Amino acid sequence: PKKRLTLNLSAKKKSRLSINQRVDLDQLTDTQYGFALLRHLHTIHAIRFNNPNERTLCNKVDIDKAFRRLHTTPKVSSKCCSTWNLHNVDKEGNLINKSNETIGTILTRLPFGSSPAPHKFSILSEISFDL
Predict the structure, then answer these.
(1) What Rg, from alpha-carbon coordinates, does the chain have?
(2) Do residues 11 and 18 touch, judged by C-beta distance below 8 A?
(3) Is the pTM of this model over 0.70?
(4) 78, 86, 93, 95: which has the fewest C-beta neighbours closer than 10 Å?
(5) Contacts 24+ apart (CB under 8 A), 125-129
(6) pLDDT in tens, 81-118
(7) Which of 69, 57, 50, 56 is nearest to 127 (CA)?
(8) How many whole angstroms separate alpha carbon 128 and alpha carbon 107?
(9) Considering only CA atoms, which of 81, 73, 64 is closest in space to residue 116?
(10) Is the separation of the CB atoms in 114 and 19 below 8 Å?
């Protein structure tokens, strides 16, 4: 299994607001996520309509990894830090002894479940069509 860091961005923090509640939605662009597929289908239809006797070649590219490459601002990254203790465990996952050693991470990529994510993904999907 893959070990991935997950954050609950809807959990209320010390300021009594979650990270998602602190997002100013008025500053985000309108979400048009999903229209890229419709635009692709209209383009294919137009090509077939104008060239009915020609072969139409189409290429599918999986861009799911591109969505994981969207970066956040340093201000948001500083709010998405986490630390945990490095306890010693055996092969079955049973705790052998507790450790005081800790490790920390700073998430610089757009976290899954964040409020601005659909807007950023919408922009990326529209750009992928325009390319």
Answers:
(1) 22
(2) yes
(3) no
(4) 93
(5) 125/33, 125/34, 125/36, 126/32, 126/35, 126/36, 128/36, 128/63, 128/66, 129/36, 129/39, 129/40
(6) 777 777 777 777 777 777 777 788 887 877 777 777 77
(7) 69
(8) 25
(9) 73
(10) yes
- 81-85 and 95-97 as β-strands: parallel, antiparallel, unpaired? unpaired
Could you write out the DSSP letters of every residue in the chain?
--------TTS--TTSS-TGGG--GGGSPPP-TTHHHHHHHHHHHHHHHH-TTS---------HHHHTTPBPPHHHHHHTEEEEE--EE-TT--EEE----EEEEE--BPPTT-TTHHHHHHHHHHHHHH-
What are the structure tokens assigned to 11, written together? 């959990």
Residue type, 97: N
Q: What is the dihedral of CA 30, 33, 37, 40, to 10 degrees?
A: 30
> Which pair of tokens denotes residue 31?
């979400």
